[in-house]
Amino acid sequence: MKNVLIADIANLDKIVYIDSEVIGNTNRRKFIKNAIEEGRCIIAKEEDDIAGFLIYDTNFFECSFISLIIVSPSKRRKGYASLLMDYMMSISTTAKVFSSTNRSNVSMHKVFELNGFVESGIVENLDDGDPEIIYFKSN
After folding, report:
1. Which residues face 134 on adjacent strands?
2. Strand partners, 133
3. CA-CA to 108 of 20 to 30 Å: which in 12, 81, 86, 134?
4. For residues 135 and 102, is the Cβ–Cβ distance under 8 A?
5. Contact status, residue 133 vs residue 127, Cβ threshold 8 Å
6. Residues 6+ apart with CB under 8 A from 105
């Protein structure tokens, strides 16, 4: 059974493990820990296993911004990213929700489009030769 809830500090090691599966290191541990402590980290669970997580904040021009969505490689294409985004939209305290991904991340572009997000802009020079595409959805 799939379940979505706000992460607590007991989930930290499992979340960092999933993140490291994707990026190859644990450099974001402090970032993830802070998000959990501030109640800005959402997890998707399958039974007792964490399948993925989402981190957001509300500092993007006073709008919600999904800064990170990570689904364990073994759990991808099973609806977890959409489940996390739906939950985020349901708890958002702002009318507008933004997020972004690199132009090269074709899979994430599809996730945004399937979840009703539309392109809203582009930021050059974050990653050389791979601009960041900004997405938006009204709540």
Report:
1. 100, 121
2. 101, 122
3. 12
4. no
5. no
6. none
